[in-house]
Amino acid sequence: MNIKEFSKRIGVSAATVSRAFGSSGRISRGTRERIMLEAERFGYRGNYHARNLIRSRVRTVAFFYPEIVRRAPDHFISEIFLGANSAASSAQTPVLVHPLNDDSSELIKDLIFGGAISGVIVVAGSRLANFAVSSAKSSSVPYAVVGRMKGEEARSVLFDPGHGAMLAGRHFSGTGRRSPAYVGGISDRGKREGFLRGLGALSENCAFDFGGTSFEDGASAFLRLKSLGVRPDSVLCANDTIAIGFMNAALSDGISVPRDLAIIGFDDISVSAYTNPPLSTVRLNLREIGRKAFSLLSGRTGEQGEVAGPEKIECELVLRASA
Amino acid sequence: MNIKEFSKRIGVSAATVSRAFGSSGRISRGTRERIMLEAERFGYRGNYHARNLIRSRVRTVAFFYPEIVRRAPDHFISEIFLGANSAASSAQTPVLVHPLNDDSSELIKDLIFGGAISGVIVVAGSRLANFAVSSAKSSSVPYAVVGRMKGEEARSVLFDPGHGAMLAGRHFSGTGRRSPAYVGGISDRGKREGFLRGLGALSENCAFDFGGTSFEDGASAFLRLKSLGVRPDSVLCANDTIAIGFMNAALSDGISVPRDLAIIGFDDISVSAYTNPPLSTVRLNLREIGRKAFSLLSGRTGEQGEVAGPEKIECELVLRASA
DNA sequence: TTGTAGGCGTTATCAG
DNA sequence: CTGATAACGCCTACAA
Questions:
Q1: Which residue's CA is nearest to the C1' of nucleotide C3?
Q2: Is the Cβ–Cβ distance between B124 and B278 less than 8 Å?
Q3: Where in chain B is the domain with CATH 1.10.260?
Q4: Contact (Cβ atoms closer than 8 angstroms) between residue B264 and residue B171
Q5: What's domain B3-44's architecture?
Q6: Contacts of residue B100 in chain A, CB cutoff 8 Å?
Q7: Do A97 and B116 touch (CB under 8 A)?
């Protein structure tokens, strides 16, 4: 049923029906109410494509993410997406989601150049992510990048684990700890440096253990430090799994947590709230990242290519009982 | 740039350009190649809405989920969505995602009655989920329901934790265990009954402990059973957190896992692979649920309202070292 | 194989 | 406040 047939059936012109649904206002209250009522009865609704075609605008945002995520678990993507989607939902904006793989370039073009969407959020990390961004740019569709993409700092939202590590360091120094330690992968420079920054003067005493990222690695890190005669009174672990392993080993060794040893993890995985004692941890605010990405879409771009600078999302220090 | 301007600029008619992008075949190879090349150069792409309007079909699926999920963590929704999205992606179909809240009904109508989508996946559990389904039905848009919705069994995909519990029971009876136990919430009837079914004759010996759902609850369940003189040699816990708590308590008590006590959890949360010994568990195949929901969309509906029956997704028994 | 013309279902403009 | 009419950009008979 289209507007013509519907309008004829209820005895008004198509234009009047259109006005009843629109927000122009040039319609009497009574007519509108009658039309809306009849529309409900007949199940009439204006055709989505015809409307967007004539208006030449649309209200749908696309969210593109790399199909295979090597470095981050899908959980990260999901949470970021949920944040973006909840922000979009508040703005009554549906989100079109699509994973990027080698076959996606046609779809990207169809959507972006074809005028199907009003904005694009791209999670960096694949060749096609760059393609999506450059497509958006060349057809002047607003876009936002999650993660690092060369040359796109002005429209990016970045994780900032270094900041979270800094908060942990500051917490240790602020609660009178004297001999801190850092346990994690050697490659994770941002966290390490942030931790030292937060530690302040205490950073000179800081011990390090660079191992793996599993539960067992956490336990063996404790043993390794112990065998070296290092007895830290506070430790930041690069993830919660390491922290739980470390804590278990320490408890087995008769150490009291948090009295003799404060432990902070990273990521806030679900089990962390249930350890004994419950694990304090640094939570990456993934939802906030998604929300920020969405809000970047409607933000003004700097004039003349002016750089607004990357939007860095701060972590949150979740203090439970282990520190 | 529209088809008219583009076609004029490269010296062919609009119809020819249209044929170059379409699959009708009525175009010479050379012309098509030249057109595609120029399109690349000019960044031309047919307008999405005009195309869908004239064809009066579209290839986009909507995924509606309840905004606030009380009983299940968002993780469930995310995983189901990822499954649906990956199936859709293989079919080159973008997915429009939107959380359902009280303001969503207008959007639902716009999308479904307005012809914006070719199928709807609805996660049951809110008033608007029912509304979305009835809208889809009355405008004959294919739909699929995830979870239980009254009267919609024919087009639903259901979780089946009972089946997973059955697998656990069968595993225990098949590996020579003699005194099984079940630890979990009293309300979780499906799991309990499935477990007993899988246990077979052994089910007469089965002990029960109905407590909470946390780590501590798992530990205290062990103590409670012990104080009653019950020493199970195999236990199924209603979730992994309980199982980890139970296992910790048992190990502290000097029990050897899995030799003297086999433990199976439920859900396969991330930390389960890192416990010591790694936890065996029943994994709800959430991705599969999403995939099945998508494939239901293109499946034929039974003629004359014939019921195809709910699609039940089986769980997977992940055997690690604890059982 | 290519071009011409009509129509898809709306909304915006212009009279009345 | 309402109705007729011209776009919006494309696809598809039909004609050439």
A1: B13
A2: no
A3: 3-44
A4: yes
A5: Orthogonal Bundle (1.10)
A6: none
A7: no
Whether the Cβ atoms of residue A121 and residue A149 lie closer than 8 Å to each other: no
Residue nearest to nucleotide D1 (CA to C1'): A27
Nearest C-alpha of chain A: how many angstroms from B111?
7
E strands, chain B, where? 61-66, 95-100, 119-123, 143-146, 156-159, 180-184, 207-210, 234-237, 262-266, 280-283, 311-313, 316-318
CB contact under 8 A, A271 and B271: yes
Cα separation, B310 vs A189, whole angstroms: 51
Q: Which residue carries 């989607």 as its tokens?
A: A85
Domain with CATH 3.40.50.2300 in chain A: 57-159+287-314, 161-284
Q: Which residues of B touch A139 (CB under 8 A)?
A: 43
Contact B47, B105 (CB under 8 A): no
B contacts of A114 (beta carbons < 8 Å): 45-49, 51
Any idea how long chain A is?
323
What CA–CA distance (Å, rounded) separates B150 from B225?
A: 39
Question: Do the beta carbons of residue B35 and residue B76 sit within 8 Å?
Answer: no
CATH 1.10.260.40 fits A161-284, yes or no: no
User: Which residue in the block uniquely carries the two structure tokens 């009837």?
Assistant: B189
Q: What is the 3-state secondary structure (H, E, C) of chain A?
A: CCHHHHHHHHCCCHHHHHHHHCCCCCCCHHHHHHHHHHHHHHCCCCCHHHHHHHHCCCCCEEEEEECCCCCCCHHHHHHHHHHHHHHHHHCCCCEEEEEECCCCHHHHHHHHHCCCCCEEEEECCCHHHHHHHHHHHHCCCCEEEECCCCCCHHHEEEECHHHHHHHHHHHHHHCCCCCEEEEECCCCHHHHHHHHHHHHHHHHHCEEEECCCCHHHHHHHHHHHHHCCCCCCEEEECCHHHHHHHHHHHHHCCCCCCCCCEEEEECCCHHHHHCCCCCEEEECCHHHHHHHHHHHHHCCCCHHHCCCCCEEECCEEECCCCC
Q: Is the minimum distance from the CB of A116 to strand D below 7 Å? A: no
Condensed to tens digits (0 to 9), the pLDDT of residues A197-224 reads 999 999 999 999 998 888 889 999 999 9
Least confident of A35-49, A193-207, B273-287: B273-287
- Please identify which residue in the block is written with the tokens 């909507």: B62
Residue B107 to residue A92, Cβ atoms within 8 A: yes
Q: What is the mean pLDDT of residues A285-300?
A: 89
Topology at the third CATH level for domain B57-159+287-314 = Rossmann fold (3.40.50)
Contact present, B297 and B63 (Cβ < 8 Å): no
pLDDT, tens digit, 9 for 90 and up, residues B145-167 = 999 999 999 999 998 899 999 99
| A76-90: pLDDT as tens digits | 888 899 999 999 999
